């Protein structure tokens, strides 16, 4: 694998709100198809502009959330721990992700039957530490198994607000020991665990969290988010990062934004190690 950050995306051709599996989704509030495709293309162009190489997964009719590639798997070096989705509406994505990853050089590993795990949506490396969200989608047993599989120190944190149902909607590692977060998505104990594990935290307000400020794509020192996060962008600049915004309103209608639309193929852990170097 080369050194440029490598990201998997899936074109938004078949994206839409066809079911409701989180509080953001309402079939009566459809995404504008044209606009969604434009926003997706703009995100891809921006990521390429800041140095990422993008690979594409083929979109499939009837799988509107396949566009959210963050959930396909958790990538660790040449290994992919495949997702098993909590909701059957998304389970059809699993064999497609399995096939793509296996045919692109990854060793695909599956969790035992009955375990739910939603990939890099819920499992984020911050340096060598694996921050693992559980309860709403991934389950706590899966997160322990994933930690064992990749021999990493896991900090399981319970997600307590249904709006922030995946860890990547309320937390984004920037580098080893450094992350963006929305404390309101965790309970006291989870907040304490994150504070201990990640000494440098940039806090996002409830209002900007609602604009998916935490759902950021980190490419080196570049941080890409949805629009509507000006305070986070100021804080990122002060911390030495270069923030970028691109409108993703149509994906927010499904409960997703920039990070959800991407999967780091060179490893989530690579993303935050490289920044620390
Ligand atoms: N509608 C999708 C779901 O509810 C959105 C997934 C967003 N992905 C993420 N990594 N947060 O599953």
TrEMBL record:
What is a single molecular function from GO for this protein?
amino acid binding
Q: Which GO terms describe its biological process?
A: arginine metabolic process; citrulline metabolic process; positive regulation of nitric oxide biosynthetic process
EC numbers for this chain: 3.5.3.18
Q: Supply the alphabetized keyword list.
A: Hydrolase
Q: Which residues form the active site?
A: 166 (proton donor), 260 (nucleophile)
Tell me where on the tree of life, at the top rank, the source sits: Bacteria
Which family is this protein grouped under? Belongs to the DDAH family.
Q: This chain belongs to which protein, by name?
A: N(G),N(G)-dimethylarginine dimethylaminohydrolase
Q: Which organism is it from?
A: Anatilimnocola aggregata
Q: What is the lineage of its organism?
A: Bacteria, Pseudomonadati, Planctomycetota, Planctomycetia, Pirellulales
